[in-house]
Write a structure and sequence with these properties.
Layout lengths: L6 H5 L6 H8 L7 H13 L3 H22 L4 E5 L9 H8 L4 E6 L2 H5 L12 E6 L5 H8 L10 E5 L11 H10 L6 E7 L4 H11 L11 H6 L5 E2 L5 E2 L19 E7 L2
Parallel strand pairs: 1-2, 1-4, 2-3, 4-5
Antiparallel strand pairs: 5-8, 6-8, 7-8
Helix pairs in contact: 2-3, 3-9, 4-5
The structure holds S-adenosylmethionine.
S-adenosylmethionine binds next to α2 and α4.
Length: 267
């Protein structure tokens, strides 16, 4: 349901929501007690989970930077945006190319409520927010076309969102429908949590039993298959923290995390 009129009933403060739990894990302030409790339950089972979240946000920054700076992408479609935090897609992209246009998409009412923080575009560029469900790619594509020109390359950002789609809901079909709409020269960044740890699987199963939106851990091969037909940019599908890591001036080891990510090119 994505009707703005139903905002109050969609909020559901008695059950954890992924956007709010993610915010808690990233050290944000936009969550309820039920979300911090769910986050703590995940961390008790799998203490490294906060590192998974941070590694994914850092991957977002490096992937958007790569697309904007190295590949010249000036339009971005970021689906499953999450609550605003540091280094949102438009800040990274417009920091490199102020004329960049960004469409954010999420179906969580709390993200909708905080969308203003995602709309602080440069005067040269544009930012838009769509209250929409990734399982309805046709609606997303139709509404995004008000801001993005689908005849020019687009950077599609799918971070921690395809894992929200169960196998029965056809995650591969959803990614294909989105990718098919992109012109050649476009890029896709995708990252999701992997079923590579029994403790993480236990933590996510416990979370799924309570939460409004369930998360589906997959093998790196299954996650990589969503990008079939595209050309992976070096270094391919790797742990998100290992995708073109920045030199860390502190000399501390990079946080690793049980998630993989890739950036792919549409020929
Ligand atoms: C794990 S968070 C990832 C946030 C951000 N992409 C990141 O990597 O930091 C998943 C986000 O997807 C959103 N989400 C979950 N299911 C969704 C759906 N069916 N359609 C659109 N957004 C969804 C949640 O509200 C949440 O903001």
């Amino acid at each position: 349901m994505t009707d703005r009129d139903d905002w109050g009933s969609r909020l559901q403060t008695d059950r954890p929501h992924s956007a709010r739990v993610w915010d808690y894990l990233l050290g944000g302030k936009n969550h309820y007690l039920v979300d911090s409790r769910a986050g703590d339950m995940i961390l008790q089972n799998f203490p490294e989970f906060a590192a998974v979240a941070r590694a994914q946000r850092r991957f977002l920054v490096r992937a958007v930077r790569f697309m904007a700076r190295d590949a010249g992408i000036r339009q971005f479609l970021d689906i499953g945006t999450g609550l605003p935090t540091a280094d949102n897609t438009h800040e990274v992209a417009q920091g490199i190319a102020p004329e960049s246009r960004i469409v954010y998409v999420d179906n969580d009412p709390i993200v909708l409520a905080h969308a203003d923080a995602l709309l602080g575009s440069t005067p040269e560029g544009e930012c838009a927010y769509l209250d929409a469900d990734v399982r309805d790619p046709r609606k997303i594509l139709a509404e995004a076309a008000a801001t993005l020109d689908f005849d020019r390359p687009i950077g599609l950002i799918l971070l921690g969102i395809i894992g929200q789609v169960s196998d029965e809901e056809g995650p591969g079909r959803i990614v294909s429908e989105l990718v098919d709409a992109l012109p050649s020269g476009s890029y896709v960044a995708l990252s999701d949590g992997t079923a590579t740890s029994e403790a993480l699987q236990t933590a996510v199963s416990a979370y799924n039993s309570q939460s409004v939106n369930t998360y589906h851990l997959r093998s790196p091969e299954q996650i990589g298959s969503f990008l079939d037909g595209l050309s992976l940019v070096e270094p391919g599908l790797v742990r998100s923290a290992d995708w073109r890591p920045d030199a860390d001036p502190s000399g501390l080891p990079q946080e690793q995390g049980h998630g993989v990510g890739a950036v792919a090119f549409k020929e």
